[in-house]
Amino acid sequence: MTVTACVLALVIRVESSQAAFPGQNGKIVFVSNRDGNNEVYTMNADGSNQSRLTNNTAGEAWPSWSPDGTKIAFTSSRDGNVEIYTMNADGSNQTNISNNKGSDQYPAWPRS
Predict the structure, then answer these.
(1) 60 strand-pairing partners
(2) CA nearest 44: which of 60, 22, 63, 59?
(3) 43 DSSP β-pair partners
(4) pTM of this prediction?
(5) Residue 37 burial (CB < 10 Å; 0-12/13-18/19+)?
(6) Which residues neighbour 33 within 8 Å (Cβ) at sequence distance 6 or greater?
(7) Which 8-state DSSP code applies to residue 89?
(8) What is the per-residue pLDDT across 80-101, written as a single tens digit (0 to 9) for each?
């Protein structure tokens, strides 16, 4: 007797919200347009101490904590197209790390 099995897999891609789970520092990083356009913010896990880290007319998106909680990667269109930036957890030292003519998106840090 021969048994034949057929497996059908349905994969649905769901866009995640633009927030990252708390880093090692216990803070959540997220994007909000409460000030007119998308900016990167942090807050404590209970929602307190919300702080805006970026402040420009371009749109920022997809923030991601570094594994040690000291840096944030995010995307920004401030240079005319979407690029990947990093910054310190307090918003300082915002640096374009992809810097090319193409669109670069969805930064993520390697996990150990």
Answers:
(1) 76
(2) 22
(3) 28
(4) 0.78
(5) middle
(6) 39
(7) T
(8) 899 999 999 999 999 999 999 9
**CA 85 – CA 29 distance, rounded (Å):** 14
C-beta of residue 57 within 8 angstroms of C-beta of residue 77:
no
Question: Which tokens go with 96?
Answer: 């374009």
pLDDT in tens, 14-72: 334 455 555 667 899 999 999 899 999 999 989 999 999 999 999 999 999 998 889 99
d(CA 11, CA 83): 28
Let me know: does 83 contact 76? Beta carbons within 8 Å.
Answer: yes
Q: Which residues contact 38 (CB under 8 A, 6 or more apart)?
A: 18, 31, 32, 59, 60, 61
* Sequence ranges of the domains in the chain: 19-96
Helical segments of 10-50, H only: none
- For 18, phi and psi rounded to 5 degrees? -90, 65
